[in-house]
Amino acid sequence: MSATKDQPPSSPRQRLGLGAAIVIVIVALAVTVGIGVVRSTVQPSEEVIITDATGTSSIENEVIYVHVSGAVTAPGLYVLDQGARVVDAITAAGGFDDEAAPSALNLARLLSDGEQLVAPTTADLEKTPGASNAAAGGAQTSSDGRVNLNSSDLAQLDTLPGIGPALAQRIIEWRETNGNFTSVEDLLAVSGIGEKMLATLRDLVVV
Known about the structure:
The chain is an alpha/beta fold. It has seven helices and seven strands; from the N terminus they run H-E-E-E-E-H-E-H-H-E-H-H-H-E.
């Protein structure tokens, strides 16, 4: 009966090689995990932005949309900063054209979101009933019976449909703060007056 030979024990060099391989695997895993953690901490946060007519990006809740029409060089829809005034909208639209009547607008008036700003021409002023009287602080009503927004008192404004004493007072306070109304659409800037009421009043008032 032959004796069974025992397998020779592993040499120190083999044990050292196996240990080194294990260490390399552990280090590689640690590096991979570390890179993933770093990447997750530097991802940029997403932000909804819009771009205005000049190509400048702005945060959405810090801008207003204004439709500029009438006697300007480039009528259209413009995105302006909150707090913009009439002069800013006119500038964005390329300025007044040769037929404009700049003095008819209050260039310092603050704009509101969704507003339509109409730049009148000198011809518009000449054919608008009561326009010259309003500028001079004249009659409360025009020749065709429409109520003048710029010269009517509280009682006269109160005769308009849907306009009670409180809203009439707001109209008076608005023109005292911002200057004369330059278009019927300016009524939208008065608290409590929306598109529906404006449609009702449009043919009953004049500036």
